[in-house]
Every structure is written in C-alpha cells, then in structure tokens.
Structures
1.
Amino acid sequence: MVGAGAFNPAIIHPQWLAAKGLVPERAASAAMESGGDEQLIVSNQLSAFTADWLTVQVTQEQAVFTTVEEGRELDLRDVAMGVFDLLPETPVDAVGINAAWHVRAQSEADWHAFGDRFLPKDFWHQVFDGGDWRRREDGEAVGLRTMTVEVGRPEGSRRDGIVKMEVAPSTRIVPGIFASVNAHFQLTLPEKARGSAYDAARTLEEEWEEARAQELTMLSRLFEAR
C-alpha cells in the first residue's frame, strides 16, 4: 500500500505503532533490535523498519506499507488505515493498492513464448532491421523486457484514478515472470480541496476488497493467455 502526500516520517516509529495498538509490542521490540539488512531508521527525512511481517518506509513525500506474507493483506490494510486515521489532517494526494507476483515458467521456451505473445514482433523487426543482433535458440532477436498497460476508471466511479499492470521477466525466479498491479486512487483533484489521510483511510476501507479481487482476476486472465 502506497500513499503519496506530505508526511512527517519521525512520527512513524515502531514504538508509536505499538502504543497505538497497530502492531504487537513484541513486533515493535523486534524492529528496535533489528540489525543487518533490516536496520531501524527513524529521522525527519526517513522512517524505515521491519516489524515482524510488516515493512514500513516513510519519506516526506511517500508512505509505503508492505508485506511478503500471504494471508496478511487485511492486516496490512488495517495498519495503514490505522496510521491514516490517527493523522487525519496529513495531506495525502493519492493512494495505491498494489500487489506483485513472481511466477515460475515451465521452461525457458515457455518463458520466451509468454513475452512473444504480448510483443508485436513484426513492428520491432523493422525497427532493428539491418543489425547483427544476438539471437535465441529459436532464431528470435527481439524480446519483451518490460510492458506497462493502464486503464482509467470510468465516470461515475466512487473515486478517480487508474489501474496499471506491468509485466516483465522475474529477477527472483529464472525462468520466471513478474507481474504487478497498481490500483491508483487520486484524492487531490483540480479545483478541489487537497486530499487527506482521513480520505486515504476511507479509500482503503471502501476500495480494498474490490481492488484485491480485481488484481486476482487480472492475474488469472494474464497467465491463462500463455
């Protein structure tokens, strides 16, 4: 979950989250004692720490709450909602309900075939015509690296915004496919009052389930297309 706005990172401290009942005391204590790659940083410019399953990174422009544990999606929403509700007047211009997946391809050939399906090769062959390019075993030189597609929310939606999907080779699983969905909700609009953390909390409360269901539907359709 990502919020874009004007934040005070120094407030978002593990002990503050525990005192407000948003994370268990033991999780806050573990964050305070973390070392190695999971160091605690809390300053006026940046707050960054991991408290058990929850990872938090807050700058003056952005607040990011993430988890890699399946089954923690609602817990993640509740922590972010709790923070926003406790700081209701904080300016928040937009909220993103985001998800990402890394899926193993059955083989390298299947991995290439997935990218080939979504890249219009005939057009790119003309662009790269005449070069002595390195080729794959199947003779193809052009391959998909990153593709981003977005759609705007229809008129009459509760909130303005877009849904963006990105597809790329996985950097974690080889051969594998990375796919992400960003359900973006714009809270600050022209000629209207600036959005707030209160607005962000209500957005998470009212949009979360539909956004998550949409993400899973899109992912299913994407991989059925292989």
Note: The chain has a mean pLDDT of 93.
2.
Amino acid sequence: MSESAEGRGLRDYIRQKGQAMRAAAAAKPNAGDWHEVVSATCVADDATGVRKLRMRDWQLTGDSGPDFGGWGLGPSSPELLCGVISTCLTHTYLIAAAWLAIPVDRVEVSVTSANNDAHLLEIASDDPPVPFNLQARISLDADADAATPEQLATLHAYAAERCPLSNLIREPNTITLLTE
C-alpha cells in the first residue's frame, strides 16, 4: 500500500489544502481581502561577499563562483530565479489539484535557463543580458484510477495560465529602484 493510500502522502495534503482554501475563500470573499505586500531584503556586509537573503523568518545565502570573486557558498542569482519559478509552479500545481480536487501523488518541476554574464564584464555578446530560454519540465505522478489524463491536462492548463511568477517573467513589468 502506498503512503498516499495510507493517508500520509501528497493526496492527503491536497485534500487538507483544498479544505483550507475553500474556508479561506468563504471567509475572505472579496479580492481586496487578499491584497498583501511581500518583501525580501538582501545584505552583503562581510569578507565573503555572500548575499544574505531574508524573507519573513527565512534566510537563504546567495553567492557567485570564483570568476566573480565568490566562494560558491550558495546558489547564484540566476539559479535562485530558476528555483523561485520552480517552487511557484509546483505550488500552483498543488493549488490547482486542491481547488479542483484532482488527486496527484507527486509534482516535480525542474526549471533551466541559459545565462551569459559577459556583459557584466563589458564583453560583447549576442546573448541577452538576462537569463534566457527558460524551460520548465513538469512531471506529475497520479494513479490512473485516481486522476484521468483529462484532469492532468486541466492541471497543466491551470498552472500555465495562473502561475504568478511564470507570468511575471512572460509579461512586461517594471522594478523601481529607490536609492538612499
């Protein structure tokens, strides 16, 4: 018997998540109820030059490799970007599965990107000065008796349309730099 059949796997989590989401939607029925400001702060302040990234009570470390004077003590910013898109897509799949009551046993999202930092060193390149050719490879595991191919296609369509960070990359956006 699989873990999910025993009530300890992802299917059980998805059921609980769906219940929580429905209760939250009933308690906060207006779009304005969901508006929030989120933030992250990054500081580099010691001899390692590592970037200490803090979000709420969480801290991550970012660093570069030796070509940029780093120590490889954490992922690079382009790697963090791939990771953030990967976790957002994974969460969007989980939201869809919970909201639509589609049982899945495993969601895996791998994001890759090409990157060329030559422009930071004033070296000419035909590549864009940003991570490019982003690709997300999605793998869903679900028992055939629990989720139909049509339901899995619905999950893919939901995530493709609604993943906030995938959409942020696809759509034009601005970042306002405020200097002190």
Note: The longest helix spans residues 77-99.
3.
Amino acid sequence: MRAPLFKRLAPRRRVGRRVGEREAIGILRGAALPAPLGMYDDAHPIGCEGGFILVKQDAVARSTDMLPGMRPDQLARKAVLAAASDISAKGGMPRWYMAAVMLPPEEATEENFAAIRDGFARASAEYGLELVAGDTGSAKELVIDVTAIGTARRFVGRAGGRDGDLVFAAGWGFGYTWLGYRVLLGGERPSLDERLVEAALRHLYEPRIPMRFGWRAAELVDATMDSSDGLATTLYELADLNGMDLELRELPLDRELEAALRAASLDSAEAALYGGEEYGIVGLVSGEAADRLRELAREEGVPLWILGEAHRAEGRPRVTLEGVGEVERRGWTHF
C-alpha cells in the first residue's frame, strides 16, 4: 500500500538553478556508478547468452504530447512505438513491453481505458509486440509510461564510427513531421497538395518505425541513433560521440515532398533538419557495407538516404551541408 505522505505535503516553490534536458539526464545518470554500457545510449543492453537484452523506457503526457486532433488510442500507440523505436535503432528486435497508465480520477472512465487499450493492441498487432505487465494510478493529467524490452545479436552504440564512414538516414518521417507541426501547432495551412498535408499529419498521429530494418542492419553499421528530437540534434550527437565532422551532400526528403516545399517557398533543409519525432534511424556505415545496407532497405521497403561522409575532426566536431555551410545545432528539448 502506498504511503499517503506526499498527498499531505503542500506544493513547494521551485528553488535553485534551472537546468536543460541534457544536464538533467547527466545528473540522474549519477545514480548508476559506475555507468554501465548503454547508459549514454538510446537503450540499455544487458549481456546474455547469444547476445543482449535491450531495455528502454519512454513516457508521454497529455499536456506535452497529445497534439490537436489526436485521439487517446493514437497517443497510447505512439508511446509504445517511441520506446520500441529506440530498441530498433540499437540493432534490437522489440518483443515485449510494460505500461503504466495514470489518469485524473474524474477521467478514469471505461471509454478512456478502452481507447488506451485499443492503442496498445494496435501497436502490438502491427509490430508483433506483447504487453506483459503494467500499472495504473492517479495523476493530474493523462500519463502513459512504457518500458520496451527486446533482444539483439549485436548492440550498436552511438559511438563506433570510423574515419571515412558514410552518414545514412532511414525512415519515413523526415520532413513530414516538420510540416505537420507547422499545421497543428503553428496554425498554418501551406499551399501544398492536400495529400502531402494529410501524410504529414499521419506521420505525427500514426508514426511508423523501421523495426526489422534496424534489427537486420546491426551486422552492417558502425554507429546508430534513433532520430526523434530532430535530425540536426541527432547528427551533432553522432559527431560529438565519434569525434567526427559530418559532411552532408543531401538531406533525407522524398522527391515529391522536397519539390512541393520548394514550390511553396518553404525551406526544405529546415524541414529535414528540424522536424522531430521522425522515429527513423541515423548512423554511420562503411563504404564497403553501404551497398548491402541499400539492398536491405529495399527488401524491407524502408526509405534510405546516404547523406554524406564522416571524417576525423581536428577540433570541435561540426556538421556541414554542401551549399549551406555549418548546420545550426538545435532541436527538441523537454526543459
């Protein structure tokens, strides 16, 4: 039985220095001494016979993650896939998940729980996942906390790239999520084909993850990250952790979307670099393995782009784009 102590405490005013998301994570990581392999990665690997067990936790809340027009079942499905995406990006196959669902008591209705159940069920059916445990509780708003568990023959870390590697991106959401946010949060309605706008909203409401591609690509790639905070942030994380300059020649946009953005006088580079929640895989692969990676992407039906090359940095690692120069480092952050 939970002690009611915290319910009797009066709210305390915030005191002390505010920190950003990266610093907050750094503080919390101090609970693990020494920091284990994967503590600084998308998912945590636990060595076992034949490979690794991968574990990842992710949470969504109504006030920060439920977009205008989004249904509770879509938020529940997205919560599951956000955690599964990180495991996939590490070369794992997501298999099981646990979920904690918290709601205000006045919202704890049969209809709300049924909607959340339906979102879990859709994620499970589409990606072969199994809900194995969970919890419920009361909170001031809807919160869904998911822990995904998977298996991997090889764990692919964020570091591990080699001088001369190629930079790649794989997935469906690049550029589309940026457009969707402009429509939903910016109140804009760009002069684009309605099909593209609908596709952009679908990528936010009903994201797809390249699950089998990530699992199969583990034997080919040198370093990977899940791209969910925006491509620019992801690229800079890879550059920093690998001590590499990333020299890009192109960006991951499908041709129809890129042409439409330019025709509407919208910045296609901005769209590719600063979206967020793409749930794609970004990484480094050797030139020798790149053709096999392309073939794998075709087999799995996953869009793949070779963006450029990585070279050992002589000073501060930089990300540059041909014809533009140094890419501005910015992206999504919680604090």
Note: Residues 166-326 form a domain with the Phosphoribosyl-aminoimidazole Synthetase; Chain A, domain 2 fold (CATH 3.90.650.10).
4.
Amino acid sequence: MNRRLLLSLLATLPLVSCFADDNFSVTYAPAGEVKGKHIVLLAGDEEYRSEEAMPALGKILSQRHGFKCTVLFSTEADGTINPDYGASLTNPEALDTADAIVMLLRFRKWNDAALATFDAAIKRGVPVIALRTSTHAFAGIETSSPFVSWNWNKEGGWGRKVLGETWVSHWGKHKSEATKGVIESANASDPILRGVTDVFGTTDVYEVHLPANAKVLMRGLVLSGMTPDSAPVTKMKTNAKKAEQGINDPAMPIAWTRVVKNDAGTENKVFCTTMGAASDLPNESLRRMIVNGVFWGLGLEVPEKADVSFVGEFTPSAYGFKGYVKGISTSAHALK
C-alpha cells in the first residue's frame, strides 16, 4: 500500500485515549458519533473518591457519547494521585478549551494561576455539572488572593454564589443513613430526568436551602439503613435555620438546576447533585442523571435513555478520609 495513503487512513481512525506524561492529566478521545465538545472533569476531594469517579464518568462520556474528555487530578510531584494535596490541580490549561466542566471538589486551595484559569472558564459561560462536596469546593485560599471570597466560609463562597448552596450539615447520619432519590413531581418532565428511576446511594443526604431561582429535580429520603429497602427515617430534626421539621418532610433537595449570571455578565447553566461519590456511581439512574446534565448544560438534545454502561470494570473504593488507593499514577486511568 502507498505509504501516503496508509498514513491518511490511519489519521482517520479514532484514538482510544491519550495520556501526557508531562502534565499528569488523562484525555479520552471521543468514540462513535463525535459531538465536537470538550468536557473537563475535575477530581479533587479527600473523602468521596473523585479520583475514581471522574475517570469513570469521563470514559462513559467519551466512549458512549462522543465527547472529548480530560480529567484533572490532585497529585504529588511525580504524578502519583494524592487527593489530600489540596493545592494541586494538574494541567489547568485544559480548562482554556472546556465546553463544560464536571467537578467533584472539596476544600481546594489552588494557586492564583489555576484559580484564574478556572475563573476564566466560568466567565466564558461554560455549564457546570457539580457533584457532592463541590458545594464547598474551596477553602484555605490565601487572604491576599483575588479569589479569597471563594472560600466556603466566606458567606458560602463560590458554592453558594454559583451552585446555590454551600456546606451546611449532614442531614442524614454519616455512614449509617443512606439516600433514596424521589423525583420532584412538579418537574418530572425535565429532560435531565429522562430514563431516571431508582436513584440510591450510600452517601447521606446533605442539608440544603436553595435560592428561589433553583429548580429542584429530586429530593433525598433519609433511610434508616444502608440498603435500598431500608425504611425512611420518621424523626424530627432542627435545621440550620433553627426550625424543627420532619427529617423527610419535606425531604432535602439532592439535585437541582439553575442559571446564574457570572461576574463577566454571561450566564452559566448549573446542574448540581449532592450525590456522586464513586461508591454512588454503581447506581445506573444516578449515572444517567449526571450524563443527562452534561447534555442539558451544552444545549444538546438529552437522549431518551442515555447509555451509561461502564467502560471496563469499575469497582469503587469506599468513601472515607485517607481511604484512597495509594501509589496510583494518573496514567493508570488511561484506557487500555
């Protein structure tokens, strides 16, 4: 075969994955019907195994739905994943070409250059799909930084300003009262809920008090145990506003959308769920709701029943501090 023709044919074949040794991020090239969109997934929390969840979602979004996906991590200097390194974000420059951001962050304190790159993406109006502790994504940013107001304890910080809420409390008992999702009947026709049925996760319900412009898609029943068949809890509880209410009456929101104007005057479409730990992702409906949120954020037609089957084996670690798998390089998450 003519060498030029061979090279031309090879150039048309889809790449399965690409890993760049010098920046410790992982990129999954799109497969199937290519959407022409770049999704950047941010992994950086100490507890809920975002370093496992974001690659799993990136593989699904790229291989099942045709998005280019790049996963950024918190690492040590040699590229070994360490979610306790809150100042680390690998390859923040990937955000310069992000069409959407999927994030699971907690108490990050990136340097000003990384924060500015993230801020620039937000100011471009990219949609944000935020999971679990992203409501309190930032903490410990220096007082001299122009981004100090993003710290969660600065009137709710970035989370309350953009997502609509910050850290408030564990509404269900941590590690003993699981979550069952209940679709908000008034918004059951929302496209993000297409193909979503039995949402369940072993993470607990967070206390949430949303602004008026948030659209609640799903509420979370606090269960009396850690299995889907556990009965809902029926006790009363005092919330952060000093009001007593039934713990499930009303149940706290666990998934919502909002559209918020940013400081540059553009708008960000936001989908947020307080679920999304790696150990929650075996639930098919939760995965589908997250994937649907990406389609919605990008203004694309949401599939009637999105394919959210895992790409390869996915066996998530249990959530918990210091529970991450030690000695794993970011390259371990490249597609084989």
Note: Confidence is low (pLDDT under 50) at residues 1-21.
